Amino acid sequence: MTIEMRIAAIEREIYWNDHVSRETKDKTQRNRCIDRIEKFHEELWALKCERGEADIERGTMEHRAWYDTSAG
Question: Is 38 within 8 Å of 10 (Cβ atoms)?
Answer without folding.
Answer: no
